[in-house]
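Z., the sequence and structure:
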Amino acid sequence: MHNQEDIQSILIKYGNAESVAWLKGKIEKLAYDKSSKDLFMTYSLLNVKFEGVKSISFESQDSESARYFSEHKANILQIARIYLLSEVLVQDLEFYTPKVANIIQVADTSELETFLKYLILLPNPEAYKQTAVEALRTNIATIFDAISLNNPYPAKFFNDQQWNQMFLKAAFMERDLSQIEAVDERANQDLTRIISDYAHERWAAGRKIDPLFWRPVSKFLNEELLNDMKKLLNSEDVIENNAGALCCYLSENDKAMALLNSKPELKHKIADGQITWNTIKQH
């Protein structure tokens, strides 16, 4: 997803010309005089040179990078930070990769949020997977959201254990599960077991469960999960009925379809596209 020309064009278009010239001068110097100290100094001065309060109102979104920045309501300081880091990495990946890692290690909350949110735009983003995984341990919602929501990085680089940890914690922290990317593609057997166990704990405590929490289980409906589906379909909560019905409908499992056949109205609404994972909370 990295496209250095795109990022540079966006910075030039929306950044203050004097500040952009200053940054390009610093980057040119870093190209022929590689220096950790100068990189750290340049990075630390970015918040003096670029505005970090107001999001950019993108006039057009004619590139993948522009669309991504626009969707995440990026400000020019965030774009300048990503431009600097990506530019030095393009110049010398081997030398600057550990230097960029050091910068992120001492980053404040705002800087870490920027790094995680736009990590996918850097060259060789997999090099920073450990930082992305460690962000799952935080209880700071903005940091957790930066890596887990509206971010293709976890689906692309996390292994099943890391992805499952993220999905479960997002549910535990009551984040918006609809904003996690590639839920269907990353569904796996271990995750469905975790979902069932967690649901039983919530039910035992008399607590509600986000209906989107059930989305990954469709293709893995064993006997225990079929009992969970039966409970959802017979719940007094309409949204739970819809969640169970969607899981059964999408399962391609004969026993699950037999359960759903006892609720013909729900089956009809799903077949007609009236109930989907995108609209489930509207019913």
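The mean pLDDT is 93. Residues 17-32 form the longest helix (16 residues).

Let me know what you think.
H.
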